[in-house]
Design brief:
Elements lengths: L7 H4 L15 E4 L12 H9 L4 E2 H8 L3 H13 L3 E4 L4 E2 L2 E2 L1 H13 L1
Antiparallel strand pairs: 1-2, 1-3, 4-5
Helix pairs in contact: 3-4
């Protein structure tokens, strides 16, 4: 990303919450049908767009970009509002409890680390 350090709250304009809820396991991908606007796109948006050409979870984006999870959630929500990414909501969670299949995928992912 950048060679200089920016405080995380500066990346989000001081916001800590977004209009949409993004769970850590929510998958996001770059929306290839929308061309990013160089005047409104930030370096973080470009990094996320490049990374998410392949599907990544919110947690993976946070880890790979070395940004706090809350910051990434706000940035991703902003990008979703601009149609720069597609959010693939997880239908594997019902009654606020993850399905067995989801928990097994998470376990496999943790073992692969």
């Amino acid at each position: 990303m950048n060679d200089f350090r920016v405080r995380p709250y500066a990346l989000t304009g001081g916001r800590t919450r977004s209009a949409i809820t993004l769970d850590i396991e929510t998958i996001v991908t770059t929306n290839e049908q929308v061309s990013p606007d160089p005047l409104t796109g930030t370096a973080e948006h470009r990094s996320i767009s490049t990374l998410c050409r392949d599907p990544h979870s919110v947690a993976e984006v946070s880890a790979r970009l070395r940004l706090p999870l809350g910051v990434v959630r706000v940035l991703l929500a902003d990008m979703s509002d601009l149609s720069l990414i597609t959010v693939h909501h997880n239908d594997q969670v019902q009654d606020n409890r993850p399905s067995t299949a989801l928990m097994e995928r998470v376990l496999v992912g943790l073992r692969n680390l």
